[in-house]
Amino acid sequence: MSITINNAFDFSQIKGVIFDLDGTLADSNPNFAGLRAELGIAPQTDILAYIESITDPVLAQHTQKVVTRYELESSHNAQWISGAKQLMTFFKQQQLPQAILTRNMPQAAKITLENLGIKVGVDIDPLLTRFDAKAKPDPQGVELICQQWRIKTAEILFIGDYLFDIQTANNAGSLSVLYSPSLVPEYAASANIVCGCYLSLVEHFKQQLTQITE
Fold first, then answer.
1. 3-state DSSP call for residue 94?
2. Given its phi and psi angles, is residue 81 left (phi above 0), alpha (psi -120 to 50 degrees) or beta?
3. Are 98 and 91 in contact (CB under 8 A)?
4. Residues forming a β-bridge with 124
5. Cβ-count burial of 124 within 10 angstroms (0-12 exposed, 13-18 middle, 19+ buried)?
6. Between 35 and 6, where is the model more confident?
7. Which strands make up the sheet holding 156-160, listed edge to edge?
8. Whether the predicted model's global pTM rises above the 0.85 cut
9. Is the pLDDT of residue 176 over 80?
10. For residue 8, is it left (φ>0), alpha (ψ between -120 and 50) or beta?
11. Span 67-73, mean pLDDT?
């Protein structure tokens, strides 16, 4: 699979692009299975929701230390996901503002961006972490970015690799691309486009733009 279009949209109407970070632009996802095992929580448990539910201050401090360790370890090893750099370059050529909305912590996100050579204020603006807006799938981050850009949420293309990303886009009333290079999850049907190759996505958007100018 290169791309699958579930709900078509006109790319020329897009006025801004918001990316998830880990697993979308960067090969930097923490070892979530190992993290959940170390925390003693069930698979698929929302880790941030679990942290917020802890009332014991000692356990809360220990949990936060473990999560921080996993996030920082993964960010130091971050590398570009194939085709992601070219995708960002294409959007830049179209003069579209680009931002990152991540559930990551600020320090880890900044390390990841440094590894990729992405500069906040130059390549993307803003960078919002879970310390800057309510964590996805809450749409607050998208809404804050749209306020800064002075565009509507319906004019945003949100690109991510997980359920929370697609839910965020849907909750905000934005369009969405699910990056899924291998197995396609059940929730993929709720994304506008399912993408297994960013270069194919670029070609799809280029074709749309060519058809408009012909």
1. coil
2. beta
3. yes
4. 120
5. buried
6. 6
7. 3-5, 193-195, 175-179, 156-160, 16-19, 98-101, 127-128
8. yes
9. yes
10. beta
11. 83
- Rg (C-alpha) for the chain, rounded Å, is 17
Q: Give the residue-averaged pLDDT of 46-56.
A: 86
DSSP lists the bridge partners of residue 16 as: 156
Instruction: Name the one residue in this structure whose structure tokens are 């699958």.
Output: 4
Residue type, 184: V
Compute the distance between CA of residue 35 and CA of residue 83 in angstroms, rounded to an integer. Answer: 28
CB 52 within 8 A of CB 143: no
Tokens 């279009």 found at: 5
Is 121:113 a contact under the CB 8 Å cutoff?
A: no
Rounded-to-integer distance, Cα 20 and Cα 142, Å: 11
Rounded to whole angstroms, the Cα distance separating 76 from 115 reads 7
Give backbone dihedrals phi and psi of 159, rounded to 5 degrees, phi first: -120, 125
**Between vectors from CA 201 to CA 184 and to CA 18, what angle results, nearest 5°?**
85
What pLDDT score was predicted for residue 30?
Answer: 66
The C-alpha torsion from 158 through 151 and 100 to 202, rounded to 10°, is 50
Q: What is the pLDDT of residues 90-129, one digit of tens each?
A: 999 999 999 999 999 999 999 999 999 999 999 999 999 9
Can you tell me whether residue 68 is helix, strand or coil? Answer: helix
